[in-house]
Specification:
This protein is an alpha+beta fold. The protein has 2 domains: 81 residues, Orthogonal Bundle (Arc Repressor Mutant, subunit A), CATH 1.10.10.10; 71 residues. It has a 3-stranded antiparallel beta sheet. Helix 1 crosses helix 2, helix 1 crosses helix 3 and helix 4 runs antiparallel to helix 6. The protein binds zinc ion. Zinc ion binds next to loops.
């Protein structure tokens, strides 16, 4: 079982949840943090319409972040759905996201490493080495001199971010 309030969960978890189910979804998640609950009870507790609550719950279900147990009320013959959160699945989702991000950052890193850039001294627009040589190192839009851009800081920054993420997924 998960423990603690949503506030104490990491910001990362929160932002993934927010993207997945929205603001109202966070209220629903909050209801399910320490206990199992029926959709009707969640609706009462959050003040959200039952339909909205159900939509959110099924969205969580799609991501396998929640599951339910269906029971039949013997007296009235209706089905009751009791919902349960599965936030361990959250770490899998974040793992996949981080791996994806590492891939993107590595591409950016390759690009920075394999390219030389020049910047216009007056309007700060960046140009590739090819463009700079074609125009004789003058800005194509204002003819000011183009200056070599030292991108070592970008490279270092990207390397740092990648290293940090790799540490987090290991
Ligand atoms: Zn310029």
């Amino acid at each position: 079982m998960n423990n603690g309030k949503l506030e104490s969960k990491s910001l990362e978890t929160n932002s993934v949840l927010l993207e997945t189910v929205g603001e109202e979804g966070l209220d629903v998640v909050q209801c399910l943090l320490d206990k199992e609950e029926t959709d009707e009870k969640i609706s009462e507790q959050t003040g959200l319409r039952l339909n909205t609550v159900r939509k959110i719950l099924y969205r969580l279900y799609d991501y396998r972040l929640a599951s339910y147990v269906r029971t039949k009320d013997k007296e009235i013959g209706w089905y009751t759905y009791t919902w349960k959160l599965n936030l361990t699945r959250m770490s899998e989702i974040m793992m996949v996201r981080k791996k994806h991000l590492i891939g993107e950052l590595n591409e950016m890193l390759d690009f920075e490493r394999n390219h030389v850039f020049f910047r216009c001294s007056s309007d700060a627009i960046k140009y590739s080495f090819d463009t700079a040589t074609e125009t004789g190192f003058r800005c194509p839009s204002c003819d000011s001199a183009l200056e070599y851009v030292d991108n070592q800081q970008n490279v270092t920054e990207l390397e740092k971010r990648i290293k940090k993420l790799e540490k987090e997924i290991n």
